[in-house]
Amino acid sequence: MLNFKQEITDLISEVISIQKDMIYQNISLIKEKDKGDYTFPCFTLSKQLKKSPNQISEELKEKLKLPKFIEKVESVNGYLNFYIDKEYLTKEVFKEYELKRQDYGKSDIGTNKTVLIEYSSPNIAKPFHIGHLRTTVIGHALYNIYKFLGYNTIGINHLGDYGTQFGKLIEAYKMWGKEYNLQENAMDQMVDMYVRINKLCSEDENVLERCRENFRLLEQGDKYCVDLWNKFKDLSMIDFEKIYKLLDIKFDSYKGEASYAKNMEEIINKLEKNGKLIESEGAKIVNLEDAGIKTPCIVQKANGSSIYATRDLAAIMYRAKTYDYDKSIYVTGYEQDLHFKQVFEVAKYLDLDEKYIKGLIHVSYGMYRLKEGKMSTRKGNFIKLEDILNESITKAKEIIEEKNPNLDNSDDVAQKVGIGAVIFSDLYNSRIKDEVFDLDEMLSFQGETCPYIQYMYVRIKSIIEKSNENVLLKDINYSKLNDELSYNIVKLLYNFTDVVIQASNKNEPYIVSRYLIDLAQAYSLFYNQNKVLSDDIEERKARLYLIDMVGSVLKTGCGLLGIKMPDKM
To answer: What percent of the chain stands above pLDDT 70?
Structure first.
Protein backbone atom coordinates (compact mmCIF):
# COMPACT_ATOMS: atom_id res chain seq x y z
CA MET A 1 0.00 0.00 0.00
CA LEU A 2 1.30 3.46 -0.92
CA ASN A 3 2.88 5.33 1.99
CA PHE A 4 1.46 8.81 1.41
CA LYS A 5 3.60 10.35 4.13
CA GLN A 6 6.73 9.05 2.42
CA GLU A 7 5.47 10.15 -1.01
CA ILE A 8 4.87 13.68 0.30
CA THR A 9 8.35 13.65 1.85
CA ASP A 10 9.89 12.74 -1.50
CA LEU A 11 7.80 15.41 -3.21
CA ILE A 12 8.99 18.19 -0.87
CA SER A 13 12.62 17.02 -0.97
CA GLU A 14 12.64 17.47 -4.76
CA VAL A 15 12.15 21.23 -4.44
CA ILE A 16 14.00 22.05 -1.23
CA SER A 17 17.44 21.01 0.05
CA ILE A 18 16.68 19.44 3.41
CA GLN A 19 17.10 15.99 4.95
CA LYS A 20 14.23 13.64 4.19
CA ASP A 21 14.13 12.37 7.79
CA MET A 22 13.42 15.87 9.04
CA ILE A 23 10.62 16.34 6.50
CA TYR A 24 9.07 12.95 7.27
CA GLN A 25 9.12 13.51 11.04
CA ASN A 26 7.32 16.84 10.69
CA ILE A 27 4.52 15.63 8.43
CA SER A 28 1.40 14.78 10.41
CA LEU A 29 -2.23 13.84 9.87
CA ILE A 30 -4.82 16.61 9.93
CA LYS A 31 -7.61 15.84 12.41
CA GLU A 32 -9.91 18.73 11.49
CA LYS A 33 -12.40 17.96 8.74
CA ASP A 34 -12.22 19.75 5.37
CA LYS A 35 -8.64 20.98 5.96
CA GLY A 36 -6.82 18.24 4.13
CA ASP A 37 -5.25 14.91 5.05
CA TYR A 38 -1.58 15.67 5.77
CA THR A 39 0.19 18.86 6.80
CA PHE A 40 3.80 20.02 6.73
CA PRO A 41 4.67 22.99 9.00
CA CYS A 42 7.23 25.38 7.47
CA PHE A 43 8.20 27.07 10.75
CA THR A 44 11.26 24.84 11.25
CA LEU A 45 12.63 26.04 7.88
CA SER A 46 12.21 29.75 8.61
CA LYS A 47 15.58 30.31 10.28
CA GLN A 48 17.48 28.21 7.76
CA LEU A 49 15.90 29.87 4.69
CA LYS A 50 15.62 33.32 6.28
CA LYS A 51 12.02 33.63 5.16
CA SER A 52 8.67 33.68 6.94
CA PRO A 53 6.78 30.37 7.24
CA ASN A 54 3.98 31.84 5.10
CA GLN A 55 6.38 32.78 2.34
CA ILE A 56 8.03 29.33 2.43
CA SER A 57 4.70 27.46 2.26
CA GLU A 58 3.49 29.65 -0.62
CA GLU A 59 6.71 29.10 -2.60
CA LEU A 60 6.64 25.35 -1.99
CA LYS A 61 3.04 25.18 -3.12
CA GLU A 62 3.94 26.79 -6.45
CA LYS A 63 6.98 24.56 -7.06
CA LEU A 64 5.48 21.18 -6.19
CA LYS A 65 4.64 18.88 -9.09
CA LEU A 66 1.58 17.02 -7.89
CA PRO A 67 1.15 13.33 -8.72
CA LYS A 68 -2.29 11.94 -9.53
CA PHE A 69 -2.98 10.75 -5.96
CA ILE A 70 -2.80 14.30 -4.57
CA GLU A 71 -5.95 16.24 -5.34
CA LYS A 72 -4.60 19.64 -4.29
CA VAL A 73 -2.25 21.51 -1.93
CA GLU A 74 -3.10 24.57 0.14
CA SER A 75 -0.87 27.05 1.93
CA VAL A 76 -2.49 28.03 5.25
CA ASN A 77 -0.70 30.23 7.80
CA GLY A 78 2.71 28.65 7.29
CA TYR A 79 1.39 25.12 6.83
CA LEU A 80 1.32 23.15 3.61
CA ASN A 81 -1.85 21.04 3.57
CA PHE A 82 -2.17 18.06 1.23
CA TYR A 83 -5.49 16.62 0.04
CA ILE A 84 -5.30 12.97 -1.04
CA ASP A 85 -7.60 11.94 -3.88
CA LYS A 86 -10.50 10.16 -2.16
CA GLU A 87 -11.03 7.47 -4.76
CA TYR A 88 -7.31 6.75 -5.06
CA LEU A 89 -6.97 6.28 -1.29
CA THR A 90 -10.06 4.07 -1.12
CA LYS A 91 -8.70 1.84 -3.89
CA GLU A 92 -5.36 1.52 -2.07
CA VAL A 93 -7.04 0.51 1.18
CA PHE A 94 -9.43 -1.97 -0.44
CA LYS A 95 -6.65 -3.61 -2.47
CA GLU A 96 -4.54 -4.04 0.66
CA TYR A 97 -7.45 -5.56 2.56
CA GLU A 98 -8.24 -7.94 -0.30
CA LEU A 99 -4.61 -9.05 -0.22
CA LYS A 100 -4.23 -9.49 3.56
CA ARG A 101 -7.73 -9.86 5.06
CA GLN A 102 -7.27 -10.85 8.75
CA ASP A 103 -3.60 -9.82 8.50
CA TYR A 104 -4.53 -6.30 7.38
CA GLY A 105 -2.37 -3.78 9.23
CA LYS A 106 0.53 -6.14 9.89
CA SER A 107 4.04 -4.90 9.27
CA ASP A 108 7.50 -6.43 8.92
CA ILE A 109 9.40 -3.52 10.49
CA GLY A 110 10.47 -5.79 13.34
CA THR A 111 11.96 -8.51 11.13
CA ASN A 112 15.22 -9.90 12.60
CA LYS A 113 14.78 -7.87 15.79
CA THR A 114 14.10 -9.34 19.24
CA VAL A 115 12.05 -7.66 21.93
CA LEU A 116 11.81 -9.00 25.47
CA ILE A 117 8.83 -7.88 27.54
CA GLU A 118 8.85 -8.58 31.26
CA TYR A 119 5.38 -8.18 32.71
CA SER A 120 2.88 -9.45 35.27
CA SER A 121 5.58 -10.91 37.57
CA PRO A 122 3.45 -11.52 40.68
CA ASN A 123 5.05 -12.35 44.00
CA ILE A 124 4.90 -15.96 45.10
CA ALA A 125 2.74 -16.55 48.19
CA LYS A 126 0.95 -13.25 47.66
CA PRO A 127 -2.46 -12.91 46.00
CA PHE A 128 -2.85 -11.77 42.43
CA HIS A 129 -4.67 -8.57 43.36
CA ILE A 130 -6.04 -5.70 41.32
CA GLY A 131 -2.69 -3.92 41.58
CA HIS A 132 -1.20 -6.59 39.29
CA LEU A 133 -3.79 -5.97 36.59
CA ARG A 134 -1.99 -3.04 34.98
CA THR A 135 1.39 -4.70 34.45
CA THR A 136 -0.35 -7.81 33.13
CA VAL A 137 -2.64 -6.19 30.55
CA ILE A 138 -0.22 -3.43 29.48
CA GLY A 139 2.58 -5.96 29.05
CA HIS A 140 0.38 -8.41 27.18
CA ALA A 141 -0.87 -5.67 24.83
CA LEU A 142 2.72 -4.61 24.07
CA TYR A 143 3.63 -8.26 23.48
CA ASN A 144 0.83 -8.55 20.91
CA ILE A 145 1.65 -5.20 19.29
CA TYR A 146 5.34 -5.98 18.78
CA LYS A 147 4.52 -9.44 17.46
CA PHE A 148 2.03 -7.89 15.01
CA LEU A 149 4.84 -5.70 13.70
CA GLY A 150 7.08 -8.65 12.93
CA TYR A 151 9.36 -8.63 15.99
CA ASN A 152 10.59 -11.83 17.57
CA THR A 153 8.78 -11.17 20.83
CA ILE A 154 9.52 -12.97 24.12
CA GLY A 155 7.07 -12.60 27.01
CA ILE A 156 8.76 -13.07 30.39
CA ASN A 157 6.96 -13.59 33.69
CA HIS A 158 9.76 -12.64 36.10
CA LEU A 159 8.17 -14.23 39.16
CA GLY A 160 8.88 -12.60 42.51
CA ASP A 161 10.08 -15.85 44.05
CA TYR A 162 13.02 -14.64 46.12
CA GLY A 163 13.79 -12.13 48.84
CA THR A 164 13.30 -11.46 52.56
CA GLN A 165 9.54 -11.97 52.20
CA PHE A 166 10.22 -15.71 51.90
CA GLY A 167 12.34 -15.60 55.00
CA LYS A 168 9.29 -14.10 56.69
CA LEU A 169 6.92 -16.74 55.34
CA ILE A 170 9.29 -19.54 56.35
CA GLU A 171 9.45 -18.11 59.87
CA ALA A 172 5.64 -17.82 59.98
CA TYR A 173 5.34 -21.48 58.95
CA LYS A 174 7.85 -22.51 61.62
CA MET A 175 5.83 -20.68 64.24
CA TRP A 176 2.24 -21.37 63.17
CA GLY A 177 2.34 -23.99 60.41
CA LYS A 178 0.26 -26.49 62.37
CA GLU A 179 -2.61 -24.01 62.47
CA TYR A 180 -2.95 -24.00 58.67
CA ASN A 181 -4.06 -26.54 56.09
CA LEU A 182 -2.40 -25.44 52.84
CA GLN A 183 -4.36 -28.02 50.84
CA GLU A 184 -7.42 -25.77 51.05
CA ASN A 185 -7.46 -22.11 49.98
CA ALA A 186 -3.67 -22.09 50.09
CA MET A 187 -3.22 -18.50 48.92
CA ASP A 188 -5.59 -17.08 51.54
CA GLN A 189 -3.79 -19.00 54.25
CA MET A 190 -0.32 -17.94 53.08
CA VAL A 191 -1.51 -14.33 53.03
CA ASP A 192 -2.84 -14.69 56.57
CA MET A 193 0.54 -16.01 57.71
CA TYR A 194 2.32 -13.19 55.89
CA VAL A 195 0.14 -10.50 57.48
CA ARG A 196 0.67 -12.03 60.95
CA ILE A 197 4.46 -12.29 60.61
CA ASN A 198 4.76 -8.73 59.30
CA LYS A 199 2.84 -7.44 62.28
CA LEU A 200 5.11 -9.39 64.59
CA CYS A 201 8.25 -8.17 62.78
CA SER A 202 7.16 -4.56 63.30
CA GLU A 203 6.87 -5.26 67.03
CA ASP A 204 9.93 -7.47 67.57
CA GLU A 205 13.28 -6.83 65.85
CA ASN A 206 14.50 -10.31 66.85
CA VAL A 207 11.75 -11.93 64.77
CA LEU A 208 12.72 -9.79 61.79
CA GLU A 209 16.32 -10.88 62.20
CA ARG A 210 15.27 -14.54 62.19
CA CYS A 211 13.39 -13.90 58.93
CA ARG A 212 16.52 -12.41 57.36
CA GLU A 213 18.51 -15.43 58.47
CA ASN A 214 15.94 -17.74 56.89
CA PHE A 215 16.43 -16.02 53.55
CA ARG A 216 20.21 -16.25 53.90
CA LEU A 217 19.81 -20.01 54.50
CA LEU A 218 17.51 -20.26 51.48
CA GLU A 219 20.18 -18.64 49.29
CA GLN A 220 22.72 -21.12 50.64
CA GLY A 221 20.49 -24.05 49.70
CA ASP A 222 19.29 -25.14 53.15
CA LYS A 223 17.05 -28.18 52.46
CA TYR A 224 14.24 -27.27 54.87
CA CYS A 225 14.00 -23.71 53.55
CA VAL A 226 14.28 -24.77 49.87
CA ASP A 227 11.62 -27.49 50.22
CA LEU A 228 9.22 -25.10 51.93
CA TRP A 229 9.93 -22.39 49.34
CA ASN A 230 9.15 -24.85 46.51
CA LYS A 231 5.89 -25.77 48.23
CA PHE A 232 4.84 -22.10 48.47
CA LYS A 233 5.81 -21.58 44.83
CA ASP A 234 3.83 -24.57 43.48
CA LEU A 235 0.72 -23.60 45.44
CA SER A 236 0.98 -20.00 44.21
CA MET A 237 1.28 -21.00 40.56
CA ILE A 238 -2.00 -22.93 40.76
CA ASP A 239 -3.67 -19.72 41.89
CA PHE A 240 -1.95 -17.54 39.27
CA GLU A 241 -2.87 -19.85 36.39
CA LYS A 242 -6.57 -19.29 37.14
CA ILE A 243 -6.08 -15.60 36.38
CA TYR A 244 -4.01 -16.19 33.25
CA LYS A 245 -6.66 -18.59 31.98
CA LEU A 246 -9.39 -15.97 32.47
CA LEU A 247 -7.27 -13.36 30.66
CA ASP A 248 -6.10 -15.89 28.05
CA ILE A 249 -2.45 -15.02 28.62
CA LYS A 250 0.54 -17.31 28.18
CA PHE A 251 4.23 -16.58 28.66
CA ASP A 252 7.34 -17.76 26.86
CA SER A 253 9.33 -17.83 30.12
CA TYR A 254 8.48 -18.12 33.81
CA LYS A 255 12.09 -17.64 34.86
CA GLY A 256 11.81 -15.82 38.19
CA GLU A 257 14.27 -14.06 40.48
CA ALA A 258 15.49 -17.29 42.08
CA SER A 259 16.73 -18.54 38.70
CA TYR A 260 19.52 -15.97 38.80
CA ALA A 261 20.80 -16.77 42.28
CA LYS A 262 23.76 -18.70 40.85
CA ASN A 263 24.83 -15.63 38.84
CA MET A 264 25.11 -13.26 41.80
CA GLU A 265 28.82 -13.88 42.36
CA GLU A 266 29.56 -13.06 38.71
CA ILE A 267 27.81 -9.70 39.11
CA ILE A 268 29.79 -8.87 42.25
CA ASN A 269 33.07 -9.90 40.61
CA LYS A 270 32.50 -7.78 37.49
CA LEU A 271 31.61 -4.70 39.50
CA GLU A 272 34.65 -5.22 41.73
CA LYS A 273 36.92 -5.72 38.69
CA ASN A 274 35.65 -2.47 37.19
CA GLY A 275 36.27 -0.62 40.47
CA LYS A 276 32.64 0.25 41.10
CA LEU A 277 31.90 -1.53 44.39
CA ILE A 278 32.12 0.41 47.64
CA GLU A 279 31.65 -1.05 51.11
CA SER A 280 29.14 0.85 53.22
CA GLU A 281 28.17 -0.34 56.72
CA GLY A 282 29.04 -3.91 55.71
CA ALA A 283 26.94 -3.77 52.50
CA LYS A 284 28.32 -3.44 48.98
CA ILE A 285 27.02 -0.53 46.92
CA VAL A 286 27.62 1.32 43.65
CA ASN A 287 27.82 5.11 43.86
CA LEU A 288 25.82 6.70 41.03
CA GLU A 289 26.23 10.41 41.76
CA ASP A 290 28.23 10.92 38.55
CA ALA A 291 25.12 9.80 36.66
CA GLY A 292 22.95 12.28 38.57
CA ILE A 293 21.44 9.60 40.83
CA LYS A 294 21.92 10.58 44.47
CA THR A 295 20.80 7.26 45.96
CA PRO A 296 23.46 4.51 45.67
CA CYS A 297 22.51 1.07 44.36
CA ILE A 298 22.88 -1.71 46.95
CA VAL A 299 24.00 -4.96 45.33
CA GLN A 300 24.76 -7.02 48.42
CA LYS A 301 23.41 -6.74 51.97
CA ALA A 302 25.65 -6.68 55.00
CA ASN A 303 24.76 -10.33 55.78
CA GLY A 304 25.87 -11.38 52.28
CA SER A 305 22.36 -11.78 50.86
CA SER A 306 21.48 -10.53 47.39
CA ILE A 307 18.90 -7.85 46.75
CA TYR A 308 16.29 -7.15 44.07
CA ALA A 309 18.78 -5.03 42.07
CA THR A 310 21.40 -7.79 42.05
CA ARG A 311 18.94 -10.27 40.62
CA ASP A 312 17.82 -7.77 37.95
CA LEU A 313 21.45 -7.24 36.94
CA ALA A 314 21.97 -11.00 36.70
CA ALA A 315 18.83 -11.25 34.56
CA ILE A 316 20.14 -8.57 32.18
CA MET A 317 23.36 -10.52 31.67
CA TYR A 318 21.50 -13.79 31.12
CA ARG A 319 19.02 -12.25 28.67
CA ALA A 320 21.75 -10.52 26.65
CA LYS A 321 23.59 -13.82 26.20
CA THR A 322 20.47 -15.95 25.67
CA TYR A 323 18.26 -13.76 23.50
CA ASP A 324 20.61 -11.19 21.91
CA TYR A 325 17.81 -8.66 22.38
CA ASP A 326 17.32 -5.31 20.65
CA LYS A 327 14.90 -4.11 23.32
CA SER A 328 14.34 -5.39 26.84
CA ILE A 329 11.18 -3.82 28.26
CA TYR A 330 10.18 -3.85 31.94
CA VAL A 331 6.51 -3.12 32.65
CA THR A 332 6.16 -2.01 36.28
CA GLY A 333 4.63 0.80 38.33
CA TYR A 334 6.20 4.25 38.42
CA GLU A 335 7.12 3.57 42.04
CA GLN A 336 10.05 1.59 40.63
CA ASP A 337 11.39 4.43 38.47
CA LEU A 338 14.41 4.98 40.73
CA HIS A 339 15.14 1.26 40.96
CA PHE A 340 15.37 0.87 37.19
CA LYS A 341 17.39 4.05 36.76
CA GLN A 342 19.89 2.57 39.21
CA VAL A 343 19.92 -0.90 37.64
CA PHE A 344 20.27 0.38 34.07
CA GLU A 345 23.15 2.63 35.13
CA VAL A 346 24.97 -0.14 37.02
CA ALA A 347 24.47 -2.45 34.02
CA LYS A 348 26.93 -0.26 32.12
CA TYR A 349 29.70 -1.78 34.25
CA LEU A 350 28.92 -5.42 33.41
CA ASP A 351 31.08 -5.46 30.25
CA LEU A 352 28.05 -5.90 28.00
CA ASP A 353 27.77 -4.67 24.42
CA GLU A 354 26.42 -1.11 24.24
CA LYS A 355 23.45 -2.45 22.23
CA TYR A 356 22.09 -4.25 25.28
CA ILE A 357 22.40 -1.21 27.56
CA LYS A 358 20.64 1.07 25.05
CA GLY A 359 17.88 -1.51 24.68
CA LEU A 360 16.87 -1.40 28.35
CA ILE A 361 13.50 0.33 28.69
CA HIS A 362 11.33 0.87 31.77
CA VAL A 363 7.66 1.21 30.81
CA SER A 364 6.07 2.61 33.95
CA TYR A 365 2.41 3.10 34.79
CA GLY A 366 0.16 4.67 37.40
CA MET A 367 -1.59 2.85 40.18
CA TYR A 368 -5.02 1.53 41.03
CA ARG A 369 -5.92 2.72 44.51
CA LEU A 370 -8.63 1.92 47.02
CA LYS A 371 -10.72 4.69 48.58
CA GLU A 372 -8.91 4.02 51.83
CA GLY A 373 -5.52 4.55 50.17
CA LYS A 374 -2.74 2.41 48.80
CA MET A 375 -3.13 -1.37 48.72
CA SER A 376 -0.80 -3.47 50.85
CA THR A 377 -0.52 -7.25 51.17
CA ARG A 378 1.38 -6.79 54.41
CA LYS A 379 -1.66 -5.14 55.95
CA GLY A 380 -4.16 -7.43 54.21
CA ASN A 381 -5.61 -4.43 52.37
CA PHE A 382 -6.20 -5.55 48.77
CA ILE A 383 -8.82 -6.73 46.26
CA LYS A 384 -8.23 -10.10 44.58
CA LEU A 385 -8.16 -9.78 40.80
CA GLU A 386 -9.99 -13.09 40.34
CA ASP A 387 -12.92 -11.71 42.33
CA ILE A 388 -13.01 -8.54 40.22
CA LEU A 389 -12.93 -10.45 36.92
CA ASN A 390 -15.66 -12.85 38.03
CA GLU A 391 -17.81 -9.97 39.27
CA SER A 392 -17.38 -8.22 35.91
CA ILE A 393 -18.44 -11.39 34.07
CA THR A 394 -21.49 -11.77 36.33
CA LYS A 395 -22.56 -8.16 35.82
CA ALA A 396 -21.99 -8.43 32.07
CA LYS A 397 -24.26 -11.49 31.96
CA GLU A 398 -27.01 -9.64 33.83
CA ILE A 399 -26.85 -6.73 31.35
CA ILE A 400 -26.74 -9.00 28.30
CA GLU A 401 -29.64 -11.19 29.45
CA GLU A 402 -31.70 -8.08 30.12
CA LYS A 403 -31.01 -6.80 26.59
CA ASN A 404 -31.28 -10.20 24.86
CA PRO A 405 -32.87 -12.88 27.08
CA ASN A 406 -32.91 -15.47 24.26
CA LEU A 407 -29.21 -15.19 23.45
CA ASP A 408 -27.39 -18.49 22.95
CA ASN A 409 -23.98 -18.98 24.62
CA SER A 410 -24.66 -16.13 27.05
CA ASP A 411 -21.91 -17.41 29.38
CA ASP A 412 -19.29 -17.17 26.63
CA VAL A 413 -20.50 -13.72 25.57
CA ALA A 414 -20.55 -12.50 29.18
CA GLN A 415 -16.96 -13.63 29.67
CA LYS A 416 -15.77 -11.82 26.54
CA VAL A 417 -17.67 -8.66 27.48
CA GLY A 418 -16.79 -8.76 31.18
CA ILE A 419 -13.07 -9.46 30.74
CA GLY A 420 -12.86 -7.10 27.75
CA ALA A 421 -14.43 -4.27 29.73
CA VAL A 422 -11.80 -4.52 32.48
CA ILE A 423 -8.87 -4.76 30.05
CA PHE A 424 -10.04 -1.92 27.80
CA SER A 425 -10.69 0.43 30.69
CA ASP A 426 -7.15 -0.14 31.90
CA LEU A 427 -5.70 0.53 28.44
CA TYR A 428 -7.85 3.50 27.43
CA ASN A 429 -5.75 6.21 29.07
CA SER A 430 -2.04 6.93 29.03
CA ARG A 431 -0.46 4.25 31.20
CA ILE A 432 1.20 6.77 33.52
CA LYS A 433 -2.19 8.00 34.77
CA ASP A 434 -3.48 6.67 38.09
CA GLU A 435 -6.75 4.78 37.65
CA VAL A 436 -9.99 4.76 39.64
CA PHE A 437 -11.67 1.38 39.35
CA ASP A 438 -15.37 1.72 38.40
CA LEU A 439 -16.92 -1.51 37.15
CA ASP A 440 -20.29 0.03 36.27
CA GLU A 441 -18.64 2.59 34.01
CA MET A 442 -16.46 -0.07 32.34
CA LEU A 443 -19.51 -2.18 31.45
CA SER A 444 -21.53 0.64 29.93
CA PHE A 445 -22.67 0.10 26.34
CA GLN A 446 -22.65 3.87 25.86
CA GLY A 447 -19.53 6.00 25.61
CA GLU A 448 -15.91 5.08 25.17
CA THR A 449 -15.93 1.50 26.44
CA CYS A 450 -15.16 -2.00 25.25
CA PRO A 451 -18.84 -3.13 25.25
CA TYR A 452 -19.55 -0.22 22.88
CA ILE A 453 -16.88 -1.44 20.43
CA GLN A 454 -18.03 -5.05 20.77
CA TYR A 455 -21.62 -3.99 20.10
CA MET A 456 -20.60 -2.15 16.93
CA TYR A 457 -18.71 -5.24 15.79
CA VAL A 458 -21.74 -7.47 16.40
CA ARG A 459 -23.97 -5.05 14.44
CA ILE A 460 -21.59 -5.23 11.49
CA LYS A 461 -21.56 -9.04 11.63
CA SER A 462 -25.36 -9.05 11.71
CA ILE A 463 -25.68 -6.79 8.65
CA ILE A 464 -23.21 -8.85 6.64
CA GLU A 465 -24.99 -12.11 7.56
CA LYS A 466 -28.36 -10.58 6.70
CA SER A 467 -27.09 -9.46 3.27
CA ASN A 468 -26.02 -13.03 2.44
CA GLU A 469 -23.64 -11.60 -0.17
CA ASN A 470 -20.01 -12.35 -0.99
CA VAL A 471 -18.74 -9.03 -2.31
CA LEU A 472 -15.68 -9.19 -4.58
CA LEU A 473 -13.18 -6.38 -5.04
CA LYS A 474 -13.84 -6.28 -8.80
CA ASP A 475 -17.48 -5.46 -8.05
CA ILE A 476 -16.68 -2.23 -6.18
CA ASN A 477 -17.66 1.12 -7.68
CA TYR A 478 -15.42 3.45 -5.65
CA SER A 479 -17.38 6.55 -6.62
CA LYS A 480 -20.11 5.28 -4.27
CA LEU A 481 -17.82 5.97 -1.29
CA ASN A 482 -16.79 9.56 -1.98
CA ASP A 483 -19.04 11.03 0.72
CA GLU A 484 -17.49 12.48 3.88
CA LEU A 485 -18.63 9.75 6.30
CA SER A 486 -17.35 6.92 4.09
CA TYR A 487 -14.06 8.69 3.44
CA ASN A 488 -13.55 9.33 7.16
CA ILE A 489 -13.73 5.57 7.74
CA VAL A 490 -11.37 4.88 4.84
CA LYS A 491 -8.78 7.29 6.26
CA LEU A 492 -8.99 5.61 9.66
CA LEU A 493 -8.57 2.18 8.08
CA TYR A 494 -5.57 3.42 6.08
CA ASN A 495 -3.91 4.68 9.26
CA PHE A 496 -4.28 1.42 11.22
CA THR A 497 -0.70 0.23 10.67
CA ASP A 498 0.71 3.64 11.55
CA VAL A 499 -1.34 3.67 14.76
CA VAL A 500 0.11 0.31 15.82
CA ILE A 501 3.63 1.50 15.01
CA GLN A 502 3.06 4.65 17.08
CA ALA A 503 1.88 2.49 19.98
CA SER A 504 5.10 0.45 19.79
CA ASN A 505 7.32 3.53 19.45
CA LYS A 506 5.83 5.04 22.59
CA ASN A 507 5.03 1.73 24.32
CA GLU A 508 1.50 3.10 24.79
CA PRO A 509 -1.36 0.65 24.09
CA TYR A 510 -3.88 3.44 24.66
CA ILE A 511 -3.03 4.77 21.17
CA VAL A 512 -4.66 1.62 19.77
CA SER A 513 -7.59 1.86 22.23
CA ARG A 514 -8.41 5.45 21.25
CA TYR A 515 -8.15 4.53 17.58
CA LEU A 516 -10.68 1.72 18.02
CA ILE A 517 -13.14 4.10 19.66
CA ASP A 518 -12.66 6.58 16.79
CA LEU A 519 -13.28 3.83 14.25
CA ALA A 520 -16.36 2.50 16.08
CA GLN A 521 -17.79 6.02 16.37
CA ALA A 522 -17.05 6.74 12.69
CA TYR A 523 -18.91 3.57 11.78
CA SER A 524 -21.85 4.53 14.02
CA LEU A 525 -22.17 7.92 12.30
CA PHE A 526 -21.96 6.27 8.90
CA TYR A 527 -24.55 3.63 9.81
CA ASN A 528 -27.00 6.15 11.26
CA GLN A 529 -26.96 8.25 8.08
CA ASN A 530 -26.55 5.59 5.40
CA LYS A 531 -28.56 2.52 4.52
CA VAL A 532 -25.93 -0.19 4.13
CA LEU A 533 -28.30 -2.64 2.43
CA SER A 534 -29.19 -0.03 -0.17
CA ASP A 535 -31.52 -0.74 -3.09
CA ASP A 536 -28.72 0.56 -5.31
CA ILE A 537 -26.71 -2.65 -5.93
CA GLU A 538 -23.37 -0.87 -6.49
CA GLU A 539 -23.85 1.26 -3.40
CA ARG A 540 -24.77 -1.82 -1.31
CA LYS A 541 -21.69 -3.76 -2.45
CA ALA A 542 -19.33 -0.85 -1.77
CA ARG A 543 -20.79 -0.24 1.70
CA LEU A 544 -20.78 -3.93 2.62
CA TYR A 545 -17.11 -4.20 1.69
CA LEU A 546 -16.33 -1.08 3.72
CA ILE A 547 -18.07 -2.23 6.90
CA ASP A 548 -16.55 -5.69 6.55
CA MET A 549 -13.16 -3.98 6.79
CA VAL A 550 -14.31 -2.01 9.83
CA GLY A 551 -15.40 -5.20 11.60
CA SER A 552 -12.14 -6.95 10.75
CA VAL A 553 -9.97 -4.07 12.04
CA LEU A 554 -12.06 -3.71 15.21
CA LYS A 555 -11.52 -7.41 15.89
CA THR A 556 -7.80 -7.26 15.08
CA GLY A 557 -7.27 -4.12 17.15
CA CYS A 558 -9.09 -5.55 20.16
CA GLY A 559 -7.06 -8.73 19.76
CA LEU A 560 -3.88 -6.66 20.08
CA LEU A 561 -5.20 -5.42 23.43
CA GLY A 562 -5.98 -8.99 24.55
CA ILE A 563 -9.76 -8.65 24.03
CA LYS A 564 -11.99 -11.21 22.31
CA MET A 565 -15.03 -10.34 20.22
CA PRO A 566 -18.44 -12.02 20.61
CA ASP A 567 -20.33 -12.85 17.41
CA LYS A 568 -23.69 -11.98 18.99
CA MET A 569 -24.82 -9.91 21.96
So the answer is: 98
Strand order across the beta sheet in which 277-280 lies: 277-280, 283-286, 297-300
- What pLDDT score does 370 carry? 53
Quick check: pTM over 0.90? yes
For residues 248 and 182, membership in a common domain is answered with yes
31 and 119 assigned to the same domain: no
Sign of CA dihedral 48, 54, 55, 58: positive
Do residues 431 and 329 lie in contact, with contact meaning Cβ atoms separated by under 8 Å? Answer: no
Within 380-449, residue ranges assigned H as helices are 385-403, 410-427, 439-442
pLDDT score at 382: 58
Half-sphere exposure at residue 180, Cβ-oriented, CA atoms within 13 angstroms: 21
* Residue 162 pLDDT class (50, 70, 90 cuts): confident
Residue 205 has pLDDT above 60, yes or no: yes
Q: Is residue 106 part of a domain?
A: no
Could you tell me the CATH number of the domain that includes residue 315?
3.40.50.620
